[in-house]
Amino acid sequence: MDLQTPHVLIFPLPAQGHVNAMLKLTELLLPAGLNITFLISSKDHRSLCGYATVHLRLNSHPGFRFHVIEGLYEGPMDTGEKLSLMFDSLTEVATPLLRKLILDFPVRCVIADGINGFSLDAAEGTGVPVIFFRTISACAFWAYFSIPDLISSGELPLTGTNMDELIMNVKGMEGFLRRRDLPSFCRSEIKNYTLHQVSNITRRSTAAHALILNTFDDLEGPILSQIRKHCPNIYTIGPLHAHLKSRSLSTLESSNSFYKEDKTCLHWLDQQSPKSVLYASFGSLATLERDQLLEFWHGLVNSKKPFLWVIRKDLVLGENDEDKVHIDLEKGTKERGYLVGWAPQEEVLAHPAVGAFLTHNGWNSTLESVVAGVPMVSWAFFADQQVNSRFVDVVWKLGIDMKDTCDRTKVERIVNEVMVVRKEEFIDSANHMAELAMKSVCEGGSSYNNLDRLVEDIKAMGV
Ligand code: UDX
Description:
Blueprint: E1 7-11, H1 16-29, E2 35-41, H2 42-51, H3 54-59, E3 64-69, H4 80-104, E4 107-113, H5 119-123, E5 130-134, H6 138-145, H7 147-152, H8 193-203, E6 210-213, H9 217-228, E7 234-236, H10 240-246, H11 264-270, E8 277-281, H12 290-303, E9 307-310, H13 322-330, E10 337-340, H14 345-350, E11 354-359, H15 363-372, E12 376-378, H16 385-395, E13 399-401, H17 408-421, H18 423-441, H19 446-460
Parallel strand pairs: 1-2, 1-4, 2-3, 4-5, 5-6, 6-7, 8-9, 8-11, 9-10, 11-12, 12-13
Helix pairs in contact: 1-10, 4-8, 6-9, 10-18, 12-17
Bound molecules: uridine-5'-diphosphate-xylopyranose.
């Protein structure tokens, strides 16, 4: 790697959704004339080398290298407590390593996942700016940021049983955010470690040099205005996957997936009528109780819509046998359902046969649905997803939020509501939002201009 080219350290939280987004950022920055060292856990590096193709593309670039971190927590992260184990191991193992890398190389800046708040400690006194990249939506970021206000106003902890009561202390969301739409951590005790960790980490963004968000101004303008009061320098550069395409830096076939994609589902989709199929997937971390799985399955079968469903091998709690779950479900599914262990999601969402997306509203999945113009049936699992799904329903009007319950009757009713009863209405708003998303990442659009500004600002650092 030559030392004349500006060098950036990129450090995501070790989880599929986060690594995925930061790899996309890397692919946008490399051709702009920046060298990049990408810090990655050994577990994620193994996964990436298994099935993804992105590492081949990146490794062939002379200005790129992975730096593999050994010794990080490698267990699941589907609860706040388990996430805390990851935070602890990051603080212990990665802080000294990051500091060493900053001191060893002439680094222009660090772009760290905003969840890795300790990056600020690692860079302290070195004069190297740290830019935070939050892979969540602006609306979820702002809800996390508002946790101290919710506590001081007495809206947290949640007392009583009415989860539909409106929340008044997340500014800009007063008219529609219910208690049940707060980030899942807010449902815990007030002393809960994760609740405070999430809030403290988010507040630390005010100390970062700048904030990068994978969103676009037309989607989250009013909430971005709230955030700017505390973090004035924000680069909104998303949707990243669409941005890569608009700059001709990616194709649908390239993959960042940690799992093996089952592409046979694309042939199955080819045989279905336009906009007839419900695509169902709960991302890379969410888990279901077996009862919930069966309620979803009955609901999907009863909806009489053809469906393509991703059953990850660790989707069902306590069961690690994808084949067994498949056999159980396939008994009544053959007629109109198709099950896969992992799908090429962007390709699936872009397929003309897909009419709606049953999603947990992880931020990547939400943006992928927005760009593809596919209406959503939302079933949030945890963290930011509760906020995203409320915005999908009442703010962006891109689908229906079935939060907290997934009994078979409700699943059937809401799938039909989105795909039949209100089909035209949702398709119109989804098409409109997809157009705005594409406009933002094309030359002259807000995200396009912000990426150019980010690159210029980095090049000017430390000169
Ligand atoms: C979690 C959070 O919930 C999310 O909001 C946060 O920003 C990152 O961590 P995750 O559960 O992984 O993320 O969901 P999501 O953000 O939607 O990312 C999942 C990714 O996996 C998407 O890019 C999606 O395209 C991909 N995917 C999912 C596949 O490629 N195939 C599949 O079968 C399922």
